[in-house]
UniProtKB/TrEMBL annotation:
Family: Belongs to the Glu/Leu/Phe/Val dehydrogenases family.
Gene3D superfamilies (UniProt xref): Leucine Dehydrogenase, chain A, domain 1 (3.40.50.10860), NAD(P)-binding Rossmann-like Domain (3.40.50.720)
Matching SMART domains: ELFV_dehydrog (SM00839)
Coiled-coil regions, chain positions: none
Protein name per UniProt: Glutamate dehydrogenase
SUPFAM superfamilies from the UniProt entry: Aminoacid dehydrogenase-like, N-terminal domain, NAD(P)-binding Rossmann-fold domains
Source domain of life: Bacteria
Organism: Streptomyces lunalinharesii
Amino acid sequence: MTDPYLQVTWTDPETQARGYLVIDRLLGGASSGGLRMRSGCTLAEVADLARTMSLKEALNYRPSDRYVPYGGAKGGIDFDPRRPEARGVLTRYLGAMKPYIDTCWATGEDLGVQQRSLDEAAAEAGIASTVQAALPHVPDGPEAGLARLDAGFAAEVGGISLADLIGGYGVARATVAALRHRGDRVRGATAAVQGFGTMGGALARYLTEAGLRVVAVADQHGVVANPAGLDVEHLLAHRTADGLVDRERLRPDDRPVESDWLSVPCDVLVTAAIPYAVDERNHHRVSARYVVEGANISVTAGAERALSARGTAVIPDFVANSAGNAWWWWTLFGDIEPTAESAYARVSSVMEDLVVSALDGAADGSMTPREAATARAESCLALLKDRPRG
């Protein structure tokens, strides 16, 4: 494992909050990766995320696309985003990172940071666009690219922004692709989802649409379960502003339970919240045949090896949740139309390809799906190193 290209540590002069930027590598002079804010965020976590972003970007390389993947990067702030001082911390962090955002780091929303707040804070910090570093590479010019991106963000599905749905849709399609490829049923398969915010809520909705039965949802207050299947739309309609299940509005058969979310009996366990959620201390409680990483770096390397050894397929984060990142670039560069129909069609096709490739590579047991996907990404990175941008 090589050292990252750049690591920056920042201290907020007003709150003493720590912030980090890690650029794993530059490709074509630029890098891509979101900005997160959470209590306990560390430089090591941000570095792990930046490495993962390099793989995520590379996997979406298609020679026929206008978009040519960037290197991986990530920003992180160790601060509770619910505190009233969070907005000021975010603005000051962006001001400190402005030289990188203007030149080599294209960023967007991530855990604890919503795109609207990020855009507003960036404007206050004198940053024209959080994707400024990507704009010189748009073949038909920055104005055309930003107009497409604005249209993509304005697109809605059922009154909800496409931008808030596309990541969860991609994870759901990755789950369906894995079930089908291994010959397991989709309709009637059971799933438990850890996290019910933007990502978790969207993927629970799309798992249900695909015919799976979501039997449990976990948030920071515990687990809500129903073996017959939760009414996901009801839970979403009564979700709190913090993305939590409103326990006061549950149906009679949807009940808070004492059980640990990892041990809920189900076919598929989907992570959609915090990093390192499944680790060496708790993986033995997982009974699911599939673990799908909707959240970045949510399964540690040791836990993944142990799960794979006992037959649980782990669909890695940089495969399963890559749609949200790729959608930005496909839209900005004009590889898809800024519509839900175009986005969903492309995501479904790409998820099928990536998941089948990872599972096929692991079929003989000589490697895990992550290792197979990493090998594919590294091959793409080798091709990208010498490819000029248009």
